[in-house]
Amino acid sequence: MYHSSNPSPDSTDIRPARRGKHKIFIGMAPGVGKTYRMLEEGDQLRQEGIDVVIGLLETHNRQETAQRAAGLELLPRQQVNCSGSLLSEMDTEAIVVREPQLVLIDELAHTNVPGSQREKRYQDVEVVLAAGIDVYSTVNIQHLESLNDLVARITGVVVRERIPDRLLEEADQVVVIDVTPETLEERLKVGKIYALEKADQSLQNFFQRRNLIALRELALREVADNIEEEALEQASNGTKTDAPFCSIHERVLVCVSTYPNAIQLIRRGARIAGYMHAPFYCLFVDDPDRFLTKTESLHIETCEQLCKEFGGEFIRVGEQDKAKAIADVAINYYVTQIVIGESQRSRWQLMLRGSLTHKLLKSLKNIDVHIIATEKRT
Q1: Are strands 52-56 and 102-105 parallel, antiparallel or unpaired?
Q2: Long-range CB contacts for residues 317-323, cutoff 8 Å, separation at least 24
Q3: What is the pLDDT of residues 191-235, one digit of tens each?
Q4: What's the mean pLDDT when you consider all of the chain?
Q5: The domain at 252-372 falls in which architecture?
Q6: Are the C-beta atoms of 307 and 253 separated by less than 8 Å?
Q7: Boundaries of each Signal transduction histidine kinase osmosensitive K+ channel sensor N-terminal domain copy (predicted)?
Q8: Which CATH number applies to 22-236: 3.40.50.300, 3.30.70.2750, 3.10.300.10, 3.30.70.940?
């Protein structure tokens, strides 16, 4: 990950051979330990001989954080004149001139004071990365642009400082610093996050347990989404890996037919997908050697409409071998759960032709198959 910081004597005007790598430490809320972890990893690399500096550190008077920074070189901030007052910001140009191998930059979503060369700290980070310097940075999940409205609904707080989603997508590594809501509450109560006099107020507002649980889920899911999208992209590009692609999120596929129980299957599959917060698909395998009656065609149209009402995607394929068609769709859509109805065939037919369920279980690995019994109506 690291490169030489000693250019040749005549290379001062040559652009860096590569862009710096960016590692982001993300958490559900202030106080989870993002900055501490960043400093810890930075100091360990320093001890291994890597040239590491702190470009910007916000301790918020947290003693443990300040102590963890000891031993690391801290670059001075620059002074910015704002309406007659001198305020300090990170000195991006000084970092580029200093040319460390790695720079630690706290609070990625920070808005710079008016009069700064760039409006946002993440823009400063992009300048540092473009200079070929690696960056470790920190951010909380509520600062992600696409989650702004959702976070406001969850917490009642409108977050003003935001970063584009692309920063997480473009990062070389994103690490979730995860603690339980109970641990975070305990840290707050003993004054490890804010001054003790602010603890009770914080626990009644942003740090309510229901808020923390929801924000924690957002942080974990966001990073899981990024990991899965990267794996999907590699799979679609034909990138070879040592292990088969494993879906992080559940995906539910309901297999419908011309039998009346298809409606029941769709409803059951939609419930399963809802419990799992999973994408939902319905599949009808159309035998090209058999024409559907008008009643059967209307039934399949009803299935498609119901699928879409539940927010699912309806898939229709022409194939004689039903088991093969289902398996192909399951693999192509990275399905993890398949819902099918119990066989309508007689025992004699099953003995002659074999069970669809048996064929599916034989051809698919790591996919759960749910066999739904037909409702008995009196």
Answers
A1: parallel
A2: 317/283, 317/284, 317/285, 317/286, 318/285, 318/286, 318/287, 318/288, 319/285, 319/286, 319/287, 319/288, 320/287, 320/288, 320/289, 322/285, 322/287, 322/356, 323/356, 323/359, 323/360, 323/363
A3: 888 887 787 778 888 888 888 888 888 888 777 666 656 665 665
A4: 83
A5: 3-Layer(aba) Sandwich (3.40)
A6: no
A7: 18-227
A8: 3.40.50.300
